[in-house]
Design goal:
Length: about 400
């Protein structure tokens, strides 16, 4: 942490450049993260200079985002928290419309806490990573029950809430409450990896990146600094073709000086998950209603609506595929498959469709949903793909 008003400015590039640069380039992470950070930081400069330069850039180029407070305004902890949960594994472009609709439906943390989980899951449908929605609801309920409807202005207490990890606690703490905490996401890791030419690959380098980031955080304007760091990675220090000439940290950046910015951050080879196969059954009643069921509350896509189907396994449906059909009907197998990629494995579904009489009863644990009501169901994007494959139109409500 650096006090932007009191810390002395001094350049240590010459005195520490060889030691730090050698450590970074050769990637010898034998020291603890804090020790590595102390070695690397002088090779670039003190945190004061970097923090001041980034904040000056941010004042001119800050992004206008719906969850951000305007200059001079106080950030709303609820909006900050909601945006940070939504932005996990999801782009800003994808989150914007969901954020606005979610706030209209649940304007306060109390409104969210009082809502039934089904309503929360439906509002989240399409954003993916659905455990986030369940944790979001549980977190809101705990904030109301234990903290009187106010998010705690304390990092440890924030981390004790459901669904809030180290990054989210730091982001909410810094942005909403001005706590000088380092919020290190993928954008920040990329900036730091290039700034210090860190050879240690992710995810092993995460403790080092956190130590480096924390050394840069100013005691004043911690929230602006956190958002500036994110904006720098999102708009300037991008994964491909970074705009180094526009970067406020171009001069001290070690990777830019070496002409290797695009090669950072280093990443360990990722293991591909095993392909899983399954079948999905689209039963359509004469009046257009579609047969759905709800997945178990825990696990993958927990609590979401789905079309009946077989288990997803590497070998696919065992034996007769129709043994997994939810009811007796003339099932037609559609050409091609629906492919979807989860975090840990890819999935291919064979889709079968059957048109059945209007009076066909729903099997136990399932329900008929009118075509006009499909958009009100908590249907994940995978199931929406299956419906599109079966030529079922989901009309916005």
């Amino acid at each position: 942490m650096v006090d932007t008003e009191a810390a002395p400015v001094k350049s240590a590039r010459k005195t520490a450049g060889t030691t730090a640069g050698t450590t970074a380039r050769r990637g010898r992470p034998s020291q603890p993260a804090a020790v590595q950070a102390d070695l690397l930081a002088p090779a670039v400069g003190t945190g004061l200079a970097e923090a001041a330069g980034l904040l000056a850039w941010y004042d001119r180029h800050r992004r206008d985002l719906p969850w951000r407070a305007k200059p001079g305004e106080t950030a709303d902890p609820y909006r900050v928290w909601l945006s940070e949960i939504m932005l996990q594994q999801t782009t800003v472009t994808a989150v914007k419309p969901y954020f606005d609709r979610f706030l209209q439906r649940f304007p306060t943390v109390g409104d969210l806490a009082r809502a039934p989980q089904e309503a929360v899951m439906q509002a989240w449908a399409g954003l993916g990573y659905y455990s986030r929605a369940r944790n979001l609801h549980a977190c809101a309920q705990m904030v109301v029950a234990r903290h009187g409807g106010h998010f705690p202005a304390d990092i440890d207490q924030l981390r004790a809430l459901p669904g809030i990890g180290a990054y989210t606690a730091a982001a909410v703490g810094a942005i909403a409450f001005g706590i000088p905490a380092a919020a290190v996401d993928g954008n920040v890791e990329r900036v730091l990896a290039r700034l210090y030419a860190v050879e240690e690959p992710l995810p092993k380098a995460k403790p080092l990146f956190h130590a480096l980031a924390q050394a840069l955080v100013p005691s004043a304007r911690a929230g602006d600094f956190a958002q500036a760091f994110m904006d720098l990675g999102a708009t300037i220090c991008t994964p491909k073709r970074p705009a180094c000439v526009l970067c406020p940290w171009s001069a001290p950046c070690m990777a830019r000086a070496a002409g290797t910015a695009e090669t950072f951050p280093r990443k360990a080879a990722k293991k591909e998950g095993t392909l899983r196969l399954g079948a999905s059954f689209v039963a359509v009643r004469a009046d257009g209603a579609v047969l759905l069921r709800t997945r178990p509350p825990e696990g993958l896509l927990g609590g979401m609506a789905e079309l009946p189907g077989s288990p997803w396994t590497p070998d696919g449906p065992n034996g007769d595929i129709l043994a997994h059909a939810p009811l007796q009907a003339r099932w037609a197998t559609l050409n091609g498959t629906v492919r979807h990629v989860f975090t840990h494995f890819p999935l291919e579904l064979t889709v079968l469709r059957a048109d059945v009489p209007r009076k066909t009863p729903a099997p136990t644990g399932m329900r008929w949903v009118a075509a006009a009501e499909l958009d009100t169901e908590a249907l994940p994007s995978l199931m929406r793909k299956v419906l599109v494959k079966a030529r079922i139109e989901i009309r916005p409500v």
